[in-house]
Amino acid sequence: MNNIQTGKCQCGKVNYSFKKDKVISAHHCHCKDCQRTTGSGKATILFIAKKNIEVNGDLKYFESVGTAGSHVRRGFCPECGSGVLSYAKEISHILYIKAGTLDDSSWVKIDSNFFASAAEDWSKPDESIKSFEKNPGVMSSIKTLFKSI
Ligand SMILES: [Zn+2]
Ligand SMILES: [Zn+2]
Question: Which of the ligands is closest to the CA of residue 10?
């Protein structure tokens, strides 16, 4: 089994690689911003420390203010428009990789749902995993992150 995972945008100009065992956690985010940016019911993201992923190619970023007041920067390929990764400016050492951009995402296990309260009936939160009404809060995510790095 290969521990090295790779992924890319649709045109391939932006690509990345990381070791699977460095992934901190995985989440579905149902917030309205993720719905807009994906054009779907939710974004599925993997948390990984910036130092543990190699990204090639230049992303363009769109910044918006999250509900907790953090500045979320969503990165996309300027050529093909695929959303590849995002991060909060306030915790910029953690990147959120969009799971759908992985070449092989069959191994991904989702830990929890964020912003379950914003989910639409046609894209309901997975009830078999933990759900947060909004996000788990910056402090608790930081604690989780420090625990797992
Ligand atoms: Zn591209
Ligand atoms: Zn979201």
Answer: 1
Instruction: Select from 23, 25, 45, 24 the least CA-distant residue to 33.
Output: 45
* pLDDT tens column, 82-116: 999 999 999 999 999 999 999 999 999 999 999 99
**How far is C-alpha 3 from the chain's CA centre?**
19
Q: Can you list the domains of the chain with their CATH numbers?
A: 4-148 (3.90.1590.10)
Low-confidence ranges of the chain (pLDDT < 50): 149
Spatial distance between the Cα atoms of 29 and 106, rounded to a whole number of angstroms? 19
Q: Are 101 and 48 in contact (CB under 8 A)?
A: no
Cα–ligand 1 centroid distance for 78 (angstroms): 7
Ligand nearest to the CA of 119: 2
